[in-house]
Amino acid sequence: MTQNNFRRTLRLYNQNLMGENTIRQELTKIKGIGKSSAIIILRIADIPDTSRVGYLSETQIDKMKSIIEDLPSHLPDYKLSRRNDPITGTNKHLISSDLMLQHKRDIDNMTKLGTWKGIRHKLGLKVRGQRTKSTGRKGVSIGVKAKGAVKK
Fold it and tell me: What total number of domains does the chain contain?
């Protein structure tokens, strides 16, 4: 491949992928795609793991996009990001902004229902059972206030 075909960056699913790095490394920057998912995507698309992002052709990029959009049919159920969705009951794999929006909706739903996790989210406290006596304090630390001098 010649230097003329080289791209410095590739914009894919609201993420800038650097052209100098390998495609396997750069695919993991997209939210919802991990190392094993990236390897599966590249194997299905017949793209070598060590190929550089900047040298990918348009057909390879389009093939990768179509595989990512139809990822639930290529991945086993345990690798999907949203299994047994509470609303639809189906298995989905959310990527990028869809993943973040669904996470926000889940937290809003918990707060609306008044679950324990929802209340903790609402109050800005730790949610998963971490200790709060000594960590997680916000704001300016006051320290110990000494009592005023006793007047005689």
Answer: 2
